[in-house]
Design goal:
Helix content is 40%, strand content 19%. The protein is built from twelve helices and eleven strands. Helix 7 (129-141) links the parallel strand 6 (119-123) and strand 7 (146-149). The relative contact order is 0.14. It has helices at residues 12-21, 34-42, 54-57, 60-72, 81-85, 107-113, 129-141, 159-165, 168-171, 180-189, 227-232, 250-267, and strands at residues 4-5, 28-32, 47-53, 75-79, 96-101, 119-123, 146-149, 174-176, 193-197, 214-218, 235-237. The strands form two sheets. Strands 8-7-6-10-9-11 form a six-stranded parallel sheet. Strands 1-4-3-5-2 form a five-stranded mixed sheet, sandwiched between helices. It folds into two domains: 4-101, Ribosomal protein L30/S12 (60s Ribosomal Protein L30, Chain: A), CATH 3.30.1330.30; 107-267, SPOUT methyltransferase, trefoil knot domain (Alpha/beta knot), CATH 3.40.1280.
Length: 268
């Protein structure tokens, strides 16, 4: 599709981009930056629109990607650096923004990804989108089958979450919106053992047999799990810490558990 040169901040496409960026358009996602836009297209996302700066289009590598995206986008717009700043969510705009159809994060898509003895990661009441993105990225790298974001977790497809996931959110099946109780019930029906990290647990995370189906549950950053949430899960494990440290960043804790599970599963 041919590009339209946009000169007004009030242009309809720029207004739409800001609305998507701010989470006001639920069926679209806001993707920014060359690498992430490339990941989105290669992952087969349906592209609603692409907006790029005239300065970026002058660079050979960027021009090739812009041309590829323009072929599949329904709307294409070129803007000045100043106008791109008006829609960017970063302090330093990355030259290109893509609006795409939100990936299906329904239970049915998630179910299709679940096979025998899966490794899952459950993000419960996690507020920081950077942590959510990092967990999704690590989950894909560790060979997890899918991820779950409970109803009180920040949107895994928000701009900051997508940036943290670096393309993994486009590939890893994600079920968004179930309650904690729904997740526990889902796992029990499929004989998937649910595991919470709890500093007070007497069981080390390395003592668990991770070779069978497991769901690693992580969250919330500030308060941790409630006692009832820990008791509802099948098992709680401890990640030992030295010194005066009381807790780990949630994405770090998720990474430790995911890679211990991966180590045992890859070895076996």
């Amino acid at each position: 599709m041919s590009s339209t040169h946009i000169t007004s901040r009030d242009n309809s496409l720029l207004r739409q981009a800001r609305a998507v960026r701010d989470g006001k358009v639920k069926d679209l996602i806001f993707v920014e930056g060359l690498r992430l836009c490339d990941e989105a297209v290669r992952s087969g996302l349906s592209v609603e629109a692409v907006i790029f700066s005239e300065q970026l289009a002058e660079k050979q590598k960027a021009a090739a990607l812009i041309e590829d995206i323009s072929r599949v986008a329904q709307r294409v717009g070129s803007v000045s650096e100043k106008l791109l700043e008006s829609i960017s969510y970063t302090k330093t705009p990355q030259g290109i923004v893509l609006l795409a159809q939100r990936p299906d994060s329904s239970r049915s898509v998630f179910n299709a990804a679940i096979q025998q003895a899966p490794l899952l990661v459950v993000m419960h009441r996690i507020n920081n989108p950077v942590n959510v993105g990092a967990i999704i990225r690590t989950a894909e790298a560790a060979g997890a089958a899918a991820a779950i974001a409970t109803a009180n977790t920040t949107d895994p497809f928000s701009p900051k979450s997508l940036r943290g996931a670096m393309g993994s959110a486009f590939r890893l099946p994600i079920w968004s919106g179930p309650s904690y109780t729904d997740v526990i019930q889902f796992c029990r029906e499929r004989h998937i053992e649910t595991v919470c990290a709890d500093a007070a647990s007497g069981k080390l995370f390395t003592e668990l047999d991770w070779s069978t189906g497991h769901a690693i549950i992580v969250g919330p950053e500030s308060t941790g799990f409630s006692q009832s949430e820990i008791e509802t899960a099948d098992v709680a494990v401890q990640i030992p810490m030295k010194g005066l440290v009381e807790s780990l960043n949630v994405s770090v804790a998720a990474g430790i558990l995911l890679y211990e599970a991966a180590r045992q599963r890859w070895r076996g």
